[in-house]
Design goal:
The protein is an alpha/beta fold. Helix content is 31%, strand content 26%. The chain has helices spanning 13-24, 42-45, 48-60, 68-95, 156-159, 176-188, 207-219, 312-327, 357-363, 378-382, 411-423, 428-433, 444-450; strands spanning 2-9, 29-33, 100-104, 106-111, 114-118, 123-133, 137-139, 153-154, 168-172, 191-195, 223-225, 228-236, 239-246, 249-255, 257-260, 264-266, 299-301, 342-344, 350-354, 368-373, 389-394, 401-407. The strands form five sheets. Strands 1, 2, 3, 4, 5, 6 and 17 form a seven-stranded mixed beta sheet that branches. Strands 8-15-9-10-11 form a five-stranded parallel beta sheet. A five-stranded antiparallel beta sheet has the order 18-19-22-21-20, sandwiched between helices. Strand 12 (228-236) and strand 13 (239-246) form a beta hairpin. Helix 1 runs parallel beside helix 8 (312-327).
Length: 453
């Protein structure tokens, strides 16, 4: 039996940052990670970092004379080298600390105070005063006839491990992850088909934004099949036949690889939570209060596993909440977290913060709306990326910014400027009058907010 002051299950962004903080306060900490391939968490190993590396490489292919198959192999190798570097760095960052022990193994709760850890060499029982669960999320596998027996089936993790570029790629799911990978593989040279169950393309976005994004997809010859349901998959030669129903008519399409991009769910099924007083909701997410404490007296849940937005920066902010409760005055909770931005790395990048028109109408919130095409921005002309649309909602009484969608080059940087203005409750005139450098994409915020009447 081993005892620690704190046990962190999962080596994600929130957990690893918390481990260092606990150690700094003299706590004896154990970090349990199921896989040696996941030190540092989802973002570093299978999500944000590797996918953005591939997005960057894919965008550069148009300047290369290397055959697309070899170019893709080179991009995969470059991605693997980057993730390996970051994974090892993250391992050493914790394991080199005197008060932290990293244990590679699978943790299962035996009760509220005790876990069992199965490593490759032994089985341990560990007790602790506090437990922090940071096990992330796992892909949702849809129930499709023939899927279990089919070859060439991938999720967003395993597709990145494939060294051969698929000639024909079928993506099941038209959400943000699916579309990001659709653009990436189209840029690598694959023929991409997206089968989307939604009636409208990008239904969470305003339709003017969605239509601009759809136009970009069509320019890249990505085929979007909306309002469709996959009925079955079947092996055929060097690929898979996917049969789907569209408008009550069955159709089929052949692919050399199938990507399941049907969402992710909290990774709680193998934790043995049924042996504890820790509750989960109907989606499998751990139930937490505003300070991220679970229904057990001695445990917290950080990151995707608690059912919040699935972003690494939310996991980091979860760390701030827990840190504030443990070592501060407890004043910072989920209630104080507002205006969460996101970026989808299609081409150009689609970024958003706050409300869009659909949300404002649903909530009955009055607003003014302004928009402008990205083609009107000098910097967009310089970098030859004129696709897109910029849009903002303004409170007509307070002049504060209610929300902003930027579908344009460098929007992933620009959206953070808007978020800061929103958090500070500054009027839109602040961004209208701010002096930006020229020629930049940021200066387009001057022009966008100058359109408010």
């Amino acid at each position: 039996m081993k005892n620690y002051d704190a046990v962190i299950i999962g080596f994600g962004k929130g957990g690893k940052t918390l481990a260092s903080e606990l150690a700094k306060h003299g706590k004896k900490v154990a970090v349990i990670e199921k896989s040696s391939k996941m030190y540092g968490g989802t973002c570093i190993n299978i999500a944000c970092i590797p996918t953005k590396s591939l997005v960057h490489s894919a965008d550069k292919r148009k300047y290369s004379e290397t055959p697309k198959e070899q170019f893709y192999k080179n991009a995969i190798a470059k991605k693997d080298e980057l993730t390996s570097l970051l994974r090892n760095k993250n391992f050493q960052l914790l394991d080199d600390q005197e008060n932290i022990t990293v244990i590679t193994g699978e943790a299962i709760f035996l009760n509220d105070e005790k876990i069992q850890v199965k490593t490759s060499e032994e089985q341990l029982e560990i007790t602790a005063e506090q437990f922090f669960i940071n096990t992330g999320a796992t892909p949702i596998i849809p129930k499709i006839d023939g899927l279990e027996d089919a070859n060439f089936i991938y999720d967003s993790t395993t597709l990145q491990e494939r060294e051969e570029l698929p000639e024909k790629l079928i993506i099941i799911g038209g959400g943000y992850i699916g579309l990001e990978l659709a653009v990436m593989y189209a840029n690598f040279g694959s023929e991409v088909t997206v089968i989307d169950g939604n009636k409208n393309f990008l239904p969470k976005e305003d339709q003017d934004i969605a239509q601009e994004a759809l136009k970009v997809m069509e320019q890249k010859k990505i085929k979007i099949i909306s309002n469709s349901k996959v009925e079955s998959v079947e092996n055929q030669d060097d690929g898979v036949i996917v049969t789907y129903k569209e408008s009550n008519k069955s159709n089929s399409v052949f692919g050399n690889a199938i990507l399941l991009a049907t969402g992710r769910k909290p990774n709680t099924e193998t934790l043995g939570l049924e042996n504890t007083t820790i509750k989960v909701n109907d989606r499998g997410a751990i139930v937490v209060d505003d300070s991220l404490k679970t229904t057990a007296n001695n445990s917290w849940a950080l990151g995707d596993v608690n059912g919040g937005p699935q972003f690494t920066y939310i996991s980091l902010d979860d760390f701030r909440i827990v840190k504030n409760e443990l070592f501060g005055d407890g004043s910072y909770t989920k209630k104080e977290r507002n205006n969460i931005p996101y970026s989808v790395f299609i081409e150009p990048v689609l970024s958003h913060v706050g409300l869009n028109e659909n949300m404002a109408k649903e909530k009955g919130i009055d607003y003014k709306v302004v928009s402008m095409p990205a083609a009107g921005i000098p910097r967009a002309r310089i970098v030859e990326q004129t696709n897109g649309l910029l849009k903002a909602l303004i409170d007509p009484e307070t002049n504060e910014i209610l929300g902003c969608t930027l579908f344009c080059e460098e929007s992933s940087e620009m959206i953070n400027i808007v978020k800061v203005a929103m958090d500070a409750k500054l009027p839109y005139t602040f961004l209208r009058e701010t002096v930006f450098t020229h020629p930049t994409m940021s200066e387009s915020l001057n022009d966008l907010f100058s359109k408010v009447e």
